[in-house]
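Side project, low priority. Logging it here so it doesn't get lost.
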Amino acid sequence: MKRKVKIMLPFRYKMIAIQLLLIGTFIISIVYGAANIRVIDVWLSLASNAEGSDISVIREIRLPREVAAVFVGAALSIAGAMMQGMTRNPLADPGLLGLTAGANAALAIAIVLLPSLNYFGIMVTCFLGAAIGASMVFGISAVKRGGFSTFKIVLAGAAVSAFLQAICEGIGIYFKVSKDVSMWTAGGLIGTTWGQLQIIVPFIAVSMLIGFALSSQLTILSLNEEVSIGLGQKTGQIKAILFVIIILLVGASVALVGNIAFIGLMVPHIVRAIVGTDYRYILPMSAFVGAILMLVADTIARTINAPWETPIVSIISVMGLPFFLLIMRKGGRIFT
């Protein structure tokens, strides 16, 4: 019993601290931008029926945008953590393993074949594309003897992502819809609306809750396949459920903001340095850290060259690429 208290209390304090940091980051992200907003206007927009130009900017532009940043950052971070635990691959990431490229390619096909498709249809299309992309990566990785390995999965992911991205761009050029495709796939939070959030957020929230419920099984699965089987786990079923959750999280994120890479790679490594290797702690902490990182990136994107906006994917890539190279150099153990 004492041992349990020693483990849980520090994590509780860390969660309180990260939640307070998230609240502070959220407020800062609403206040700063091309048009700076007073903190009092943020409060009035949330707690009253007051009217005004700044309050309208907060309610109709800033708030839905930053809520989207929170949920997308959390979704991609949890998806990355699940992929790293399930495959025992420290380089696993939705962007590196074909999920986002598959969703982008499917989205481009839908724009051409079904131009009047509603937002729910776009989201379902992204789900299917993410599933196809990931299936291609894992299928290619398992073709030869020896099964999966970190090296083979990364190579297959790079090849499949490049192939699917080429399909996406080729469709845009051939059918003269490059502008429409780019607006979806470039990666950004511009134009996010409450209507879009009403469709996307429930999928992300439910998927995260199911992921949290399976965190204990994921912890065992991340240690060793034989150990999982020896403890009576139905590893095939658990992997299938986790794979569906990952597809839902990534597909919903791509449908909302387009192609955002490296969040799912960076955050789980950062979180392990804070809470250890137990996925009961990694997954919830990843949600908060990913949300904070996404908010910071979006705030920088809006302010670094105001009144023009820098693509958020560029900001995240500047942070993520050195991180990726550092992980490669250290063999997957960046903080240990």
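Brief comment: The chain has one domain: 64-329.
Revisit when time allows.
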